[in-house]
């Protein structure tokens, strides 16, 4: 009998199997089946003269059965394309995601729509690998990363090993993940009261720390100047931290608030803000000192010394002022509403006396204690009362005479009495108070009978002086 060969099925997908059946052989005959590059299969025909062998389909072509006595039979196998190996890739959470947020990538591998179990999948970005996963029962492999950079990144999942009827190795799927830039960490810094402030004034600095506009709670903030730290604060529910100092120097100082610790999705550590504070110099304490009457004064003349104490031009009330000369203290005064303190002395010696007014105590924003002022009081020799020549003018209508008397060298403020005649017991013509220069002048109306006196005497205290009295010559 002649051999015949039947293929079941005659058309098969690559990787599938088919059976070659030879009929018409002699019972027990050796039948050799050959196909493509597969090893030949030798089978004994059964009692009905049939033999069969099973192969894996690789390429289309002849399948041959050869019998030792029955000859050769052939049939053609058609190999169709295998089922598709498909890789799909998804990410969760969906884009966009915040920088640093974990992103889970899931690759699903299927062969002809069926899950491929145990496939090894490599996940990569243009920057390099980011993970490896193995497909499970659903054909899914996953990896998670929080290292994707800001911007849009293409992620690829590639099958690098798989056992399946599909050709999956090298098959890949892609997806894009958009990562938003991290929210900005912002530090603002303010000071109160606003500049400028007086030296020594407490200044409060407030740093506000926000992440994407939301307060950052519990951040540690260091406040510093170029000279060094001035304080540390911790932000509260509103994101603010404060510190207060009254040690800022005069001039303009730059203050910096720097975050040294924070728990937030923002990168806040090292972020800083600055502000400038202008501190004005303390107002000056000024002491002025005057004396009255003005120099020179005769010896023994009472001299009033007036010290005026001001702070920034305003009177300092209640300051204690010591008046002194090189010989020692001469008095103490307390400033009143006008900022003035006085003392009076008549014991200054002859010559130029340097008098100093020194603030011993004061309650003021100025540093007044120890501030001084000086003036010089010149004291002459002891004054000598001297009567000057006097004259009179007749009034024939009233039969009287008007006489003007003048004495110099009197003690300022003292009373000078002018007597008719040569001694202090004569009739009193008039009296006058000596001015600051020691001059006393008065005018008297004399009767015709008093014109017999041709002299007059000026007296003041224990001093007296006599001068002439006569008609005024035109």
Q: Count up the helices.
A: 0
CATH topology of the largest domain, by name, is Immunoglobulin-like
- Domain count: 5
Q: Termini separation (Å)? A: 195 Å
Unreliably modeled segments: none
Which range does the strand content fall in? over 45%
> Which term fits the overall shape?
rod-shaped
Query: How many distinct beta strands?
Result: 43
Q: Label the CATH architecture of the largest domain.
A: Sandwich
Radius of gyration: 62 Å
Give the fraction of residues assigned to helices: under 10%
Give a short account of the largest sheet: 8 strands, mixed
What's the CATH H-level superfamily name of the largest domain?
Immunoglobulins
The average pLDDT is: 92
Describe this structure in words.
The protein is mainly beta. It has five domains: 4-80, Sandwich (Immunoglobulin-like), CATH 2.60.40; 85-180, Sandwich (Immunoglobulin-like), CATH 2.60.40; 185-280, Immunoglobulin-like (Sandwich), CATH 2.60.40; 285-382, Immunoglobulins (Immunoglobulin-like); 386-471, Immunoglobulin-like (Sandwich). Helix content is 0%, strand content 60%. The chain contains no helices and 43 strands. The strands form nine sheets. Strands 36, 37, 38, 39, 40, 41, 42 and 43 form an eight-stranded mixed beta sheet that branches. It has a five-stranded mixed beta sheet with strand order 2-8-7-4-5, with no helix packed on it. A hairpin with a 2-residue loop joins β31 (320-325) and β32. It starts with a strand and ends with a strand. The model has no long low-confidence stretch (mean pLDDT 92).
